[in-house]
Design goal:
The protein is mainly β and 853 residues long. It has an eight-stranded mixed β-sheet, sandwiched between helices. Strands 3, 4, 6, 8, 9, 11 and 13 form a seven-stranded antiparallel β-sheet that branches. Strands 1, 2, 5, 7, 10 and 12 form a six-stranded antiparallel β-sheet that branches. Helix 7 packs across helix 8 (738-745).
């Protein structure tokens, strides 16, 4: 597989050894393995050629991507043991093997660099060879001669550790020992001393490890609690697409009972009873019963069914079908609403019900607005659904109605009408109550808990219980600081489980409906991505990760609160990766508020040294979580020799409503001061921070924060804004959701009634104050924060003669998704900080060489 982290440009040349060369003097040798000539090798092929022994070298033998040579360990599936060897006094590695037959031997070493490095790699061997750097073949020679001259190839190494692997062919005619010699010679402006040769495979984290290989997607437990469905994604880097692998694991013994990769299989889910798995394949709905070990097609003509929900009695499913937009297509369009700019907005989605026994299908909803299923009642007799419509007279500009329908008569009852905030709803196990999740202001001030004069943050999701008979609503999380992300009402205990944003963690809490007290579940990870509960047993499965802990799946016994590992698909990916230490660090701001944070240290950290530092924040409505990797992988930045300080400034959810309310009508006020104060205090209290080499980075609202920060301070030596907002007015009106997001972030404030906010808090209007080198990154197809936000800041700083760069990623939206662009984007971030915080320009200049325009 072609690697992008290693750029190899082939250019044949020769050079003489000099003092500036680095000799590869340490090797791991794995012995040799016999390779047989193919049958009929003495016959001519269609080109009239006889088989050559050198062709044996071209056979792959092993998947080189799985090679991670280590002294004393065997190549997987063989008895070939890697052993350390050193070169002789004449700089040659000599080897011979007494076994008979044609043989291939393997030699490996590792070359590390803290900086981008460019130069020539020279290899000479008296035996035919192929040389690979990581998994890309850099050089080869298929003839044998003790008089051969070295082959030299240009090589470019990004910071990190790179595996060098040499395959050599030892023909059965060989009588003398063979030799191998490999050297590195730096190009101008580079030095050999920055390279280190080692036989130790332990290496820093790479972007490829974060993006490639198997990645755990989700885990779901069967209703009876006996089996778990595990879904794993795998990236094809050539096609730049993900494929999905699913397997069913029996929890009693961990045995995999079924696995499948078929792309035509979709909508896989457990049924409400027993251990039955349903899925759509070939246009039909199928069920596999793991208790009876049989498969049955239960519904034909399911081509229009995608997402579907089973009735608790399993007698029918409910699903949505879109009514397509039948308006005339063309290059002229009347825009009806702000939302009408979005592709597909004119389509409407409606609910349908299909009975399993008869196949009878009936349409449940109609109208000019989409209807969305919320839940099916425990007795399978009713459903609740929502319908919304635009209303620009009040923020947040749409109204939501919650409706209950009798499935036998289609009679409806309106539970809530024209609510200003979207809500989720589900039945209690007895069907007499509803669990509602919505904004603090969903029911007036009932769920609000902020200081006088503040407006609550609508993204700080709260939970309510609604009594169907009395029609009374109770706010159950008003004094509970975490923000609700998902919920489940347990039918066996009648207690409620909440997955939450809990400061910078994602924790699960049990809410006892009798005592009305919250208890945190002590789970195995800091970030619980998703939790799924069995219906008849006190069991659940969850996926989670954390700082220095990649995503895994666990089973938890809810009675004992003990977790056990189910799936760890990335274990081999990270088994030889060195991750730096992470530590907590909080400070009290000048306003008396505790601002929490943490920091990441590079591997092999030395407290006596000074390190460049990157400050990361978001600043918007959600905290910077402790997820491993992600779009802004702090562990990767640390692997490249940076200390990374992450802080949670005011305005984020998960810290209580008063804390999150600071986001409303702020746009940098207080938040910027906290970031600046935190950076200064962090630098002062940690002697290993180089105060002259601190950079900052943020994205989206965090990109706005970067730009705004630079108008307020010059403490940063470099800055990066990805998809950042430079002018509140243009973002408010141009982005698909600009005005809707501003309904919370700029509540009741508009360009015509609060010019001070829209002008004074917009970085563009203070661009002349910016002196820090700024890198602007943006996708050209960004519909959230249009690329113009970066373009106008770039224009301003260019006219002002300030240091600025703009990198635009074509066809990418708010997130950079395509694999090759994601790697380029990440490398651009690292190269920018390396140039300005490490004074190392080579990587940036290699990525973006100057052109004489």
């Amino acid at each position: 597989m072609k690697r992008i982290v290693l750029l190899c440009i082939l250019s044949l040349t020769f050079f003489a050894l000099s003092a500036q060369e680095l000799l590869v003097d340490k090797w791991l040798a794995a012995g040799s393995i016999e390779v047989l000539e193919p049958a009929l090798s003495q016959k001519e092929n269609t080109q009239g050629e006889l088989f050559k022994t050198s062709e044996l070298l071209k056979s792959s033998l092993f998947n080189l991507e799985t090679f991670s040579p280590k002294n004393g360990e065997a190549i997987k599936g063989t008895n070939l043991i890697w052993n350390e060897q050193t070169v002789d006094a004449d700089s040659m590695l000599r080897f011979s093997f007494n076994e008979k037959g044609n043989r291939i031997a393997f030699f490996s070493t590792y070359v590390s660099t803290e900086y981008f490095w460019k130069g020539m790699l020279s290899i000479n061997s008296s035996a035919p060879f192929e040389l690979f750097v990581i998994n890309s073949k850099l050089a080869d020679r298929y003839t044998a001669s003790s008089e051969s001259k070295p082959i030299s190839k240009e090589v470019k190494l990004v910071p990190g550790k790179h595996r060098i692997l040499v395959k050599v062919l030892l023909p059965d005619t060989l009588t003398n020992p063979s030799t191998l010699k490999v050297c590195f010679k730096p190009s101008e402006d580079y030095v050999a001393e920055t390279l280190v040769v080692s036989t130790n495979p332990i290496a820093p984290l790479t972007i490829n490890q974060l993006l490639e290989g198997p990645k755990l997607s989700r885990a779901a437990i069967s209703a009876a609690g006996d089996f778990v469905l595990v879904t794993i994604s795998e990236l094809d880097t050539e096609k730049e697409k993900n494929s999905w692998f699913r397997k069913v694991v029996r929890l009693s013994d961990g045995k995999t009972l079924s696995s499948f990769r078929q792309s035509e299989v979709s909508s896989v889910q457990w049924m409400p009873k027993g251990n039955k798995l349903s899925y759509i394949a070939g246009g039909s709905l199928w069920v596999f019963d793991f208790d009876k070990l049989n498969e049955a097609r239960i519904l034909d003509e399911a081509k229009e069914v995608s997402g579907y929900t089973w009735a608790p009695n399993e007698q029918f499913i409910i699903y949505s079908i879109d009514d397509k937009d039948d308006s005339k297509k063309g290059d002229v369009k009347r825009i009806l609403t702000m939302e009408d700019r979005q592709p597909g907005w004119r389509e409407r989605s409606f609910l349908y019900k299909t009975e399993i026994s008869s196949g009878k299908t009936e349409r449940l909803t109609w109208g000019n607005q989409s209807t969305w299923l919320q839940d099916i009642s425990p007795d399978s007799k009713k459903i609740i659904f929502t319908v919304s419509h635009l209303d620009y007279s009040e923020r947040p500009y749409d109204k939501h109605t919650l409706i209950e329908m009798n499935l036998a008569t289609h009679k409806i009852d309106t539970i809530f009408a024209n609510k200003l905030f979207a809500m989720g709803a589900s039945y209690s196990p007895d069907g007499k109550k509803l669990l509602i999740t919505s904004a603090p202001l969903a029911f007036g001030d009932l769920g609000v808990n902020v200081s006088d004069g503040k407006l609550p943050n609508g993204y700080d999701t709260q939970a309510y219980i609604y009594e169907m008979e009395s029609k009374k609503v109770r706010a159950i999380t008003k004094n509970f600081n975490p923000s609700i992300s998902s919920s489940w009402w347990c039918p066996t205990t009648n207690n409620i489980y909440f997955n939450t944003d809990d400061e910078d963690r994602n924790n699960v809490y049990l809410f006892n409906t009798k005592s009305e007290k919250f208890t945190q579940l002590k789970l195995a990870e800091e970030v619980i991505n998703r939790i799924d509960f069995a219906k008849t047993k006190q069991l659940a499965v969850y996926t989670g990760n954390g700082m220095n802990s990649w995503k895994k799946a666990y089973l938890v016994d809810l009675k004992t609160n003990k977790s056990s590992l189910i799936e760890d698909p990335e274990k081999d990916t990270y088994k030889q990766v060195a991750l730096g230490e992470t530590k907590e660090w909080n400070f009290k701001s000048s306003l008396g508020k505790t601002i929490k944070g943490r920091y990441y240290l590079p591997p092999n950290f030395d407290a006596s040294k000074k390190y460049p530092t990157i400050v990361y924040y978001y600043g918007g409505t959600s905290p910077v979580g402790r997820d491993f990797g992600g779009r802004y992988p702090k562990e990767l930045y640390a692997a490249h020799g940076f200390v990374v300080y992450v802080l949670q400034p005011s305005g984020a959810t998960g810290f209580g409503q008063d804390f999150s309310a600071a986001h409303v009508n702020a746009w940098g006020k207080v938040t910027a001061d906290e970031i600046i104060e935190g950076t200064k205090k962090f630098s002062a209290e940690h002697s290993f921070v180089d105060a002259s080499s601190i950079g900052c980075i943020g994205a989206s609202y965090g990109g706005f924060m970067t730009q705004y920060l630079l108008t307020q301070t010059d403490i940063f030596a470099a800055a990066i804004s990805h998809a950042g907002i430079s002018a509140l007015t243009s973002y408010w009106g141009e982005g698909y959701w600009g005005y809707a997001y501003s309904a919370e972030a700029s509540a009741n404030s508009f360009p015509w009634n609060n010019k001070d906010l829209y002008v004074n808090q917009s970085p563009l209007f203070s661009a002349d104050k910016i002196t820090t080198p700024l890198l602007l990154l943006h996708g050209s197809a960004d519909t959230n924060v249009p690329v113009g936000e970066s373009i106008q800041m770039f224009t301003a700083l260019k006219l002002l003669g300030k240091p600025v760069e703009l990198i635009q990623f074509d066809e990418e939206n708010h997130f950079i998704m395509k694999y090759s662009r994601r790697v380029q984007w990440t490398n651009s971030i690292l190269a920018w900080f390396s140039m300005h915080l490490k004074n190392e320009k080579g990587w940036w200049e290699e990525l973006y060489p100057d052109k004489n325009y």
